[in-house]
Amino acid sequence: MGLDVIIPVYRPGKKFDRLFVGLLSQTVKPDSIILMNTEAEGCSCAALAQRLRRLMRRQRLYGKKQVEVRLVPVRREEFDHGGTRRLAVELSSADYFVMMTQDAVPADDYLLERLLRAVQEEDCGAAYARQCAPFNASLVEQYTRLFNYPTVSCKKTKADLPRLGIKTWFCSDVCAVYRRNAYNEAGGFVKRTIFNEDMLIAARLTELGYSIAYVAEARVFHSHNYTLAEQFRRNFDLGVSHTENRQVFAGVSAGREGIRLVRATLEYLIGQRRYLDVLDLFLQSGAKYLGFFLGKRYRILPRKLLLTCTGNAGYFESHEPAECKRQKEE
Q1: What residues have CB less than 8 Å from 148, skipping those under 6 apart?
Q2: C-alpha angle 137/142/144, rounded to 5°?
Q3: How far apart are CA 1 and CA 31, in angstroms?
Q4: What is the pLDDT of residues 144-177, one digit of tens each?
Q5: I want to staple 103 with a disulfide (CB 3.0 to 4.6 A). Which of 15, 68, 311, 324 is the partner?
Q6: The model scores a pTM over 0.85
């Protein structure tokens, strides 16, 4: 049985250093850590390798455990949320692999052990960790994390669709482990997607009869204090993903879950008498709604507006819809 950890990286910051050290300190250590490095000035694979060696020496971890670290260069214009991860999985031969992002920091040394235990259950195709907001996160962000990642573990199957709706397929590659044979049966990550590669494969896994496990005991610190513009762009790209994958999302509603989150957060903030945070909630929710609304209609937007709205302009440069190509020619 092998276990690899796969992390796409782009100009990784200090959180990545804590993540890397945390992985080497796990009770169940990975066989390999595969870093898909989107190279940028000052962050080539050679520079990143040197940084990791210094880090291991400083933490006295160098040579302590034979964990292979593989750095794979990725051109910025070739990065794709699905395709880059799919390539990384092809480079791994492990029976299980963990997908992480560069800003997810293990909360303790038992993260991989607990995820692996969950996904090894016979019917489980994937398992994902609980994301906890650090203390410096906004109150709205802290409650949002608690809403989406509660303290109780659960397993979700196709039978839960009438009750949970789109939440049935909720699975986050911020920190998730996959069983390789189930992953292969599901066809792997989609080769081209602007967003949602994790939810798309989770939908396919449940369709095949596998369960998706949420492991509340496996914890990472991860949150974002997005500006309104960043929130808008993130949800615009989410809307694009829903439109490009209508065959998956047509039968479920994302709006119902969003409304439930806003109501629960509003009740919490009023109960805490945090009235200024209520304003923040409404502004954030408005940015999310507007972004998602326009993203679902991205095909009819003028090209300049489209590239202003998206948080991933490179996706449209290398993978232009027919409407965008026509507008560009005109």
Answers
A1: 131, 170, 261
A2: 130
A3: 10
A4: 999 999 999 999 999 999 989 899 999 999 999 9
A5: 15
A6: yes
